[in-house]
Amino acid sequence: MSSTGIALRQISFEQKSFWRNPASAFFSFLFPIIFLVVFATLFKGQQVQVGPVKTTYDDYYIPALVAFGVMGACFTNISVTLSLRRDNGILKRLRGTPLPPWAFIAGVVGSSIIVSIVLALLTTGFGILVYGVHVPQHIGAAAASIGVGALAFCALGMAMTIAIPNAEAAPAIVNGVFLPIVFISGTFFPVPSSSVLAQIAEWFPVRHFIDAMFTAFDPAHQSASGFNGSDLLIMAAWGVGAVVLSVLRFRWEPRKS
Amino acid sequence: MTAIVVDGLRKSYGALEAVRGISFTVEEGEVFGLLGPNGAGKTTTIEILEGYRNRDGGDVTVLGIDPHGGGRKLRERVGLVLQEAAVPPMLSVTEIVELYRGYYPAPRPAAEIIELVGLTEKAGERVIKLSGGQQRRLDVALGLVGDPELIFLDEPTTGFDPSARRAAWEVVRNMRTLGKTIVLTTHYMDEAQYLADRICVIAAGKVVAQGTPETLRAGTEQLTHIRFELPDGLTVAALPLAVKVDDGTAIIETATPTRTLNELTTWAVVHGLELPNLEVTRPSLEDVYLELTRSE
């Protein structure tokens, strides 16, 4: 079978596993939607300052939540799922078959990207129809930013498993790392770039992902292209670092007690 | 043809020498039992053969290939049934077998494999709904799906109830009739005795005995036991032979059971005695095994 065929079959397997599992479908999928409804309702009609731009809360929040959904579908989902599969021997068994590791990874990443795209479309559509946010100005830039962000956060999810000792600890460690950064990066409310929190968040990829999405959605028509090159570069750098780390240290077997 | 050659295999984990110079060969088409108590080095040995671990010393070939870095070419020809490995829980039996079929160049038909492990009635069921024994049989199915020449079964029946064990044994027998070479690890002597053509017993990282179940039994100093209940009024001193008495049962250990039994029964007939519950037992392979693996 061709390489593409193998990868497509792995993606289809990952999709089945994802949608049939109530926990993963709920946390990765329903979570962002619930956040959307809660926060969008809470801050409805408020104005916020995002850098030089003054805009409605919802026009800021919808692109930020698109980024949040992608990060959940890629980073959180991959790190927790792979830790579990490593612990219960699914990865070890797979390593004993002729399936090439790249094909397995392609399945995991491809499936997470599909979930990301569905989430991005739903979040944006919901925002436009229910909360009256502006239609994204730069569709191409939005798609490219989601692509770069999804790949980077998939790689980070794989790399994260290196630091996870066992599956029971996975959700606590993953959320313990992810959620604080999500908050200080201004996912739920913009954090002024002069603040200390924002200066810390500048070092991490989350704030740059949100910024990239906001630039692409561009509700105030500030950007000519919808791209902010440095945001994408910083995310890509994190992604490349995570790939290198994963290649060196990714484990297919549970840690011996 | 020789399927596996292991010569002077060594492996340490830190200061612990798990495998201390093990050698054996496995011929094509045989069921080879690797037997030993927990911690004897069975799993380390088999995981080196499977390509999961690197060895510290010795030579190993599996189907003519060094399993360390044996890669895809070797994995296409070998089926693994690991000791503890889950199956993706949300797929059905048929779906997971079909998925794994896709990994191999010349897989067996899904329905045939599912039938072989006795899961035909559960083919449409999701893995999460299967019992422990059924999941274990699915493990075996996934090890067989690529039509491998060589199959590793690592403690395939640990934790099974007796009827599930019998069913699993039949599956292994079926595999053997397909002409597969099978390496089986177990710590159940009866399992090795029932399934294996040859047995290699390891203890504390070394081979302590190897051979067919029969030669293993013959090769030890275990004596045949003759037992009977001491009839009322009969004292040990009156008997023509030295006996041990255990809770009213006389036990005679002998290397020449025919002769000893003749002496005993002739004496009893002459004295008009009936010896209640008279029995002659050969040492069981279990006894042999316990003697071999007794830690010094």
Mean pLDDT of chain B: 88
Give the count of structural domains of chain A. Answer: 1
Instruction: Specify the CATH class of the largest domain in chain B.
Output: Alpha Beta
Helix content of chain A: over 70%
Coarse shape of chain A: globular
Which protein chains make the most extensive interface, counting residues with beta carbons within 8 Å of the other chain's beta carbons? A-B, 21 and 27 residues
Shape of chain B: elongated
Strand arrangement across the biggest beta sheet of chain A: 1-2
Percent strand of chain B equals 25-35%
Question: How would you describe the oligomerization state of the chains in this entry?
Answer: heterodimer
Number of domains of chain B: 2
Textual characterization of the structure:
The complex is a heterodimer of chains A (257) and B (296). By secondary structure, chain A is mostly helical. Chain A has one domain. Helix content of chain A is 72%, strand content 3%. In chain A, strand 1 and strand 2 form a beta hairpin. The mean pLDDT of chain A is 92. Chain B is α/β, with parallel strands linked by helices and 296 residues long. In chain B, helix 3 packs across helix 4. Chain B has a 6-stranded mixed sheet, with helices on both faces. In chain B, strands 11-12-10-13 form a 4-stranded antiparallel sheet.
